[in-house]
Structure formats: C-alpha cells, structure tokens
Write a structure and sequence with these properties.
The chain has a single domain, classed as NAD(P)-binding Rossmann-like Domain (Rossmann fold). Helices cover 37% and strands 19% of the residues. It has an 8-stranded mixed β-sheet, sandwiched between helices. Strand 9, helix 7 and strand 10 form a beta-alpha-beta unit. The longest helix has 17 residues. It starts with 5 loop residues before the first strand and ends in a 14-residue tail after the last helix. Bound molecules: NADP nicotinamide-adenine-dinucleotide phosphate.
Length: 215
Amino acid sequence: MNTVQKITFLGIGNVGFALADKLVNLGHAVTIAARDLTSATVRTALERNPKLTARPLTEAVTAADIVFLATPFPAAEAALLSAGSLSGKIVVDCTNPVGPGLSHGLNNTLSGGEFLQNLIPDALVVKAFTIYGFENFENSVYPGYGALKPAMLVAGNDASAKHTVSDLCRQLGWEPVDTGNISMSLHLEHMTLLWIKMARVQGLGAGFVWAMLRR
Ligand SMILES: NC(=O)c1ccc[n+]([C@@H]2O[C@H](COP(=O)([O-])OP(=O)(O)OC[C@H]3O[C@@H](n4cnc5c(N)ncnc54)[C@H](OP(=O)(O)O)[C@@H]3O)[C@@H](O)[C@H]2O)c1
C-alpha cells in the first residue's frame, strides 16, 4: 500500500497533466496550483480527469508536501516566487532550459536544476521527469522486456526527497536511477536535448526511452 502523497502541480500542460492524471488515478491527493483558475490548461485538465481539483496558487502549494514544477523554464522563476513558502517541501523540477537551435538555455555551464535550487534554497529540489517527451509520461509501458523497466534519471541534494520521488517513479512504471546531487541536472538536461533531437528532429518519434542495465 503506497503512502498517499499531497501533491500540487505548477503548470498543467502536456507534462503536468500526464503526471497529475496518473498520480491522482494511483490514489494520491493531487491538486492544480492555478494562477488563473479559468485558464485553458486548467479547464482542460479538470475536464479530462474530474478527480483533479484546482485551487488558488499559494493555497494549493501551502497544502502540499510535493510540488511538481511543470511550467516552461522561462516562467519557472516567477511561478516559484509567487508560490508562497516552499520551505521543507519537495519540488520536482520537470523543466528544461532549452536555448536557440536546441542548445542548452543556460550556456552549458549552470543547470536549470541548480539555478532553481539556488532560487529556493529551503526547498528540496529533485530533477525528474525531464529526459523524455511527455508521451512517455502518458504511457510508460514498453512490453516485451520482462521485469526491465524504463529508466527515470533523478538528481537532487536531499536523499530523503529523492527517495520519495523515486517511489513515485516506481509507481508510475519507471526504474528510478539516482544520478547524484542537483549539479548532475546539467547532464540530464543534455540528455533531454539528445532525446528531443533524435525523437522530434531526426524523426525517430516519441516511442523510445533508455534503460539501465547492471552487472
Ligand atoms: N513537452 C515535453 O515533452 C516535455 C518533456 C519533459 C519536460 N518538459 C518540460 O516541462 C515543462 C512544461 O512543458 P509542457 O510541454 O508541459 O508545457 P505546456 O504544455 O506549454 O504547459 C505549460 C504550463 O505552464 C503554465 N504556466 C506558464 N507560465 C506560467 C507561470 N508564469 N506561472 C504558472 N504557470 C505557468 C501554463 O499555464 P497556462 O495555460 O495558464 O498558461 C501551462 O499549464 C517545460 O519546462 C518543458 O521543457 C517538456
């Protein structure tokens, strides 16, 4: 029996909805932290899964233990700073700083994960759900590989927060792989660019992920 987590979503578009939909169906208490309760993405999400509820931004964040950040990266700073206190909360950073021509948006030196952890130092930022397209969050099943699950790479400074997020990854059908502290986000963000270029530019399509083989 899984612990019911109190989760809210900042951003409920492609990525936010795919994850919120699955998590609420798993029995977690999932809300949408809405800056605008009437926005198209909020209304669409509520229509697509009536088990979701939307609450004003700070009210939803205050009530949650886990905040999924799924806004465009350029909107992330404003979204976090308007969210109220995030002290002690787990912030799952699903964003990717993508620059012109599918380059790294922070000039390949500072990761988005570190940038956000520095912005909210009292929060426990865990980078996760970034390295594949949202289609794989809608459906993480790859039949024919036995017990082998697709890998979800995570990074963060707090072991307990990573443990909690890893548990959610498992419930969503992924094998969580702890890559290290939040500075590892830089490499995860480059893996995202690799995946996007292969899937969406070179035409391979969204139906592939990576797996972790060990011996
Ligand atoms: N698309 C993918 O396949 C994929 C995969 C992995 C990670 N990512 C990353 O995940 C993030 C979200 O991508 P997406 O494709 O889900 O984007 P999206 O469909 O455009 O949805 C973005 C969401 O963020 C909200 N938002 C925008 N500005 C905001 C602000 N200032 N404050 C609060 N909320 C704000 C939007 O709300 P409104 O509708 O009200 O504007 C919308 O709900 C991005 O950082 C992206 O790089 C994307």
